[in-house]
Amino acid sequence: MSTALITGASSGIGATFAQVLAQRGTNVVLVARSEEKLQQLAQSLREQYAIRADVIVQDLLKPEAATTVYSAVQALGLSIDLLINNAGFGDYGKFSTRDRQKQLDMVQLNIAALVDLTHQFLPAMLERRSGSILNIASIAGFQPMPYFSVYAATKAFVLSFSEALWAESQDQGVCVLAVCPGPTESQFFEVADFPTALASEGQGIVPAETVVKEALQALERQQSNVVTGGLSNQFVVNAARFLPRSTLVKGIAKVFGPKA
Ligand SMILES: NC(=O)c1ccc[n+]([C@@H]2O[C@H](COP(=O)([O-])OP(=O)(O)OC[C@H]3O[C@@H](n4cnc5c(N)ncnc54)[C@H](OP(=O)(O)O)[C@@H]3O)[C@@H](O)[C@H]2O)c1
């Protein structure tokens, strides 16, 4: 039986990964800050699917959080076959007016914690010549996004980092996949203060199940990245290839900027 460790497993896309993987007979290790939600999910997965479900309550913003998670996994006597770096958040608005600490925390969680967890778990996978890492990026990572500037930049990092590791690890039996969802049902927009109407403008917000199923299919095909959701998401990520960058970024500023 294989084991997946999922960060940000207490809600949204992370909780859905846990549900779908457990249904497929995978043991899960659930990581986030909300202990009660994690324990409830773990209990329900154990009862429904007769799998092992462990909980590690961890704020990934804490110093040495990845080392703490790695040690907790060792203490549980587990070996991780699939690491899903999913925990993350955004923050909508003009950069200069937004809370400074929230911007720094976003970089810490979306980038530094993901890099550190990858660095903790990847070597054993390479040694075993098996295992997968799935990093949740975003369609926001394909172009700069005024009024969502730090978030889009963190996801550009995740996309670039993951694709580079995919090429480094591919011939050693380990797959690293960048998952790039578009607007997806979760608490994301609320946490980001993002106007939901804006998020779904011209396109549907898809259920988290769509992201999870398409990501797992892409992993089976050993892809380096996958843009989940409908055709409109493909349009967004490909726009950057055809338009001059300044035209693109000005256009995005018009769409995402405050309306007069
Ligand atoms: N929803 C979308 O439209 C969308 C689109 C593209 C990409 N994404 C990406 O998808 C990923 C999952 O987001 P979601 O949409 O499922 O949003 P969500 O429902 O808000 O879930 C975020 C998860 O991250 C966890 N988290 C937040 N801060 C944390 C911290 N300091 N330490 C540990 N865990 C923390 C939260 O758990 P606790 O609060 O319990 O810690 C929660 O489980 C994120 O990386 C997001 O950027 C989302």
Question: Can you tell me about this structure?
Answer:
This protein is an alpha/beta fold. The chain has one domain (3-256): 3-Layer(aba) Sandwich (Rossmann fold), CATH 3.40.50.720. The chain is built from ten helices and seven strands. It has helices at residues 12-23, 35-49, 65-75, 100-128, 149-169, 188-191, 196-199, 208-220, 231-242, 245-256, and strands at 3-7, 27-32, 53-57, 82-85, 131-136, 174-180, 225-227. It has a seven-stranded parallel β-sheet, sandwiched between helices. It is globular. The N and C termini lie far apart (56 Å). The structure holds NADP nicotinamide-adenine-dinucleotide phosphate. NADP nicotinamide-adenine-dinucleotide phosphate binds next to helix 1 and helix 6.
Strand coverage percent? 5-15%
Q: Which structural category fits the helices and strands?
A: alpha/beta
Percent of residues in helical segments? 40-55%
CATH architecture call:
3-Layer(aba) Sandwich
Q: Please identify the top-level CATH class.
A: Alpha Beta
Ranges with pLDDT <50 over ≥5 residues?
A: none
Cofactors, ions and other ligands in the entry: NADP nicotinamide-adenine-dinucleotide phosphate
Number of domains: 1
Distance between the termini: 56 Å
In N-to-C order, the SSE pattern is: EHEHEHEHEHEHHHEHH
* CATH overall fold name: Rossmann fold
Shape annotation: globular
By DSSP, the count of extended strands is 7
Summarize the structure.
With about 260 residues, the chain is α/β, with parallel strands linked by helices.
